[in-house]
Give the backbone structure.
Amino acid sequence: MAIYTCGHTTPDSDSICSAISLAYLLNKIGREATPARQGEVNPETQFILDRFGFTAPELKTSFAGEEIFITDYSDRGQAPKDIDEATIVGIVDHHKLGDLTTSAPLECWIRPVGCTNTIVKEMYDYHKVEIPKEIAGIMMCAILSDTVIFKSPTCTDLDIKVVRELAQIAGIEDFGALGMEMFKVKSAVEGVPVRELILRDYKPFDMHGSKVGIGQLEVVDLTIFDAVKDELQADLDKLREEEGLHTAALLLTDIMKEGSEVLVSSSDASIFEKAFDKKLENGKVWIDGCLSRKKQIIPFLEPAFA
């Protein structure tokens, strides 16, 4: 039986590319594997796949009776709904340890680095498997995306080292220019429905019994949201009601100004305000230097719910 390699429910570039790169590695070491995805491919990820000649992994939302090697998460809220009926054989991730549990031992590669594909590169090195040029290309792009071309506080020296090694394998001379191309694709939001924007890079969390959803949009110029910001705020309110959330938030991240405007819809906004020691104005607040949901939002917001 083939192992499915698959990321979280709303896949980003790291989630998709790590499923592909991990599946290739597992096949090379004699473990039959197939990459999969739980959701639609976003524009940036499609750009990366097209650039290096890949098609999107199989769309699969049910894993009952299957073996699955999880990539880029370990939270139950980001897993398939029938995850308890599947066999988790491994986890490779760069986030906090989540609440998934297993009844049997499993392989875990969890490191505090900027991207799952950085860890997958270490797995290739450990197993002494050569990385094909195209695989190296998508892994490199995923790291550039997750680390915001090395600007994110989540970026480590290892991420930078791995990008340089992968760029050499992929034959990419100017990986910074390619990274900017990716973020320009990310910034093309005109005409996209507001719900699609909110869910493009959205993750659900259980914070001490309260359901919280946080999305993030990274662009090169925040003014592109001026015409739709009120619509985004109104749809956050709808999403919170529909999903029974305590709080729904959307980070509008400007990678050039290196900060985020956060739109917040909450049944008790004082919790968010306490977490960041900032007052919301019409449900919005600018957080200077905030580029990472993982490192600059979750570690402050979650304790505020305790």
Q: What stands out?
A: The longest strand covers residues 210-219. The longest helix spans residues 13-28.
